[in-house]
Amino acid sequence: MTRTVVISGGGSGIGLATARCFAAEGDQVVLAGRRPDVLDEAVRRVPGALAVPADLATAAGARQVARVVAAEFGAVDVLVHSAGGNGGREPEPADLDRTDPVAGAEHDWTLNFRLNALTAVLLTEALRSRLASPGGRVLFLSSIAAYRGSGSAAYAASKAALHPYAFDLARTLGPRGVTVNVVAPGYVESTEFFGEGLSPERHEHLVAETFTGRPGTPGDVAETLHWLASHSAGHITGQVVQVNGGARLGL
């Protein structure tokens, strides 16, 4: 049966790989994100996909996606939160004084929580009543940084904030037959996350942390998300699944 799958940040990287994964199974994919040009290119690569340009860090943007879903499909079977980043692609305000640590912290922490936490929360709340019951799936993308605080502290904290929110949703949506889970990738190459890319030394260090001897790919994460959205994973909820090749062990 064809499902309706809404993917935030579905125009590139892990989000695009996830969209292609679901579309390959015949699902109807809705791609939401801020960049119309990126979404247009993604639509050409994902059979039957529908693009909804929207700033998901705003209530208006989240409601825009909800209106389109309501008008075109009625319900959401799978909601995947792939929008986010570390803020490296965002232009800094011209008046930001980086010599002032308080001003820098205010900017970095506000930006990261908008990109990674607020986008996920607002879109979830906008679509909560439209999640298929039973059988709905809500999936969040966290990060290995949420566990070990690597990289930017603001980024790590904003990803870690998704965990208790997901756990609370799992508890409240469980009686409706909706599962909620989190996937926390480690180092994934071939995405926009690192901007122009890592130095060879940093790349080698991150690969050396794994047991598999390679970086992750967007497809590794996409396949995990796809499985968590399947009937086979119907009794898995309130969990964080790490996809990092062994770079971090345990829960």
TrEMBL record:
Iron-sulfur in keyword set: no
The keyword Oxidoreductase appears for this protein: yes
GO molecular function: oxidoreductase activity
Pfam families in the cross-refs: adh_short_C2
InterPro entries: KR_dom, NAD(P)-bd_dom_sf, Sc_DH/Rdtase_CS, SDR_fam, Sec_Metab_Biosynth_SDR
Keywords: NADP, Oxidoreductase
Family: Belongs to the short-chain dehydrogenases/reductases (SDR) family.
Protein name: SDR family oxidoreductase
Organism, scientific name: Streptomyces chumphonensis
